[in-house]
Model the fold of this input.
Amino acid sequence: MYMLVQAGGLTGFRRPSFGIIARSILLPVDLLLRTYMVMHLAISVLLHVMVPQLA
Done:
């Protein structure tokens, strides 16, 4: 992604709209990844707590 931005800057493709588009694509992906990580952690903790009680 960084290389793409660098290439864009070299070719004079430094329009603000490109940054806005890139941010609007990256932000939901970032939020999804964070949500997935949090959910994964929560499920792991819940399993560690619940499994010994069930056994």
Q: What stands out?
A: The first helix runs from residue 2 to 10.
